[in-house]
Amino acid sequence: MRMTCLTAALWLVASSVCVGQPESPAGPAGLCEKEAKEGFVCLFDGKTLDGWQGAVDGHVVEKGVLVCTKHGGGNLFTKKEYGDFIFRFEYKLEPGGNNGVGIRAPLEGTPAFTAIEIQILDNAAPEWKELDPVQLNGTVYGVVAAKQGHEKPPGQWNAMEIMAKGPHVKVTLNDTVIVDADLRKAKPTPIRGDDIEGLRREKGYIGFCGHGHRVEFRDIRIKDLRDRPEKPRR
Prior knowledge:
Elements: H1 33-38, E1 40-42, E2 52-54, E3 59-62, E4 65-68, E5 74-82, E6 85-93, E7 98-105, H2 111-114, E8 116-121, E9 158-165, E10 168-173, E11 176-182, H3 197-200, E12 204-210, E13 215-224
Antiparallel strand pairs: 1-13, 2-5, 3-4, 4-13, 5-12, 6-9, 6-13, 7-8, 7-12, 9-10, 10-11
């Protein structure tokens, strides 16, 4: 069976390897013991879409993996709202794949405009070669460009962490911080328009934003920083 929990070192919090399998003592769907003690919980049980709402018909579970289908997609949201959090997951694209993570989103509308969306994209695909830097993989869509060149090619798993704490948003991809931004200082581009309402939202749902491309997700977990505030460093 595959190792599903990332090394804690990947997330810059430890140097030991945490190994979890869907039915192992380490925890369900990739949640390792260390993460559990830190307050992380799994959002996907590897078997069902329990805990999710929205475009459930556009998503399926295949061999423990959450799949946004080619002929489905849509916005698949958590049933719980989150404000400040650390959200971790792995994703795998097919060539040309396009998806995103909406955070602090309302259930209605397009998260890229009504909330904050972190782009998930196969940058190398010919159909995306004309995109603006604020539309590429890992960006805060239409607002903050991400450092490029740290994504793995289609067919390989990528590890992403999104930390949101007040106006501070940080995105880590495969052990590299690619966005570290204060949204109070960010200025939407013409792609997003003049509307900044979504950037000011303090709480909402987290969702995968499918656009009719097959994209796979696994090891989906979150730490709610408002429920369990981080201890101050000494």
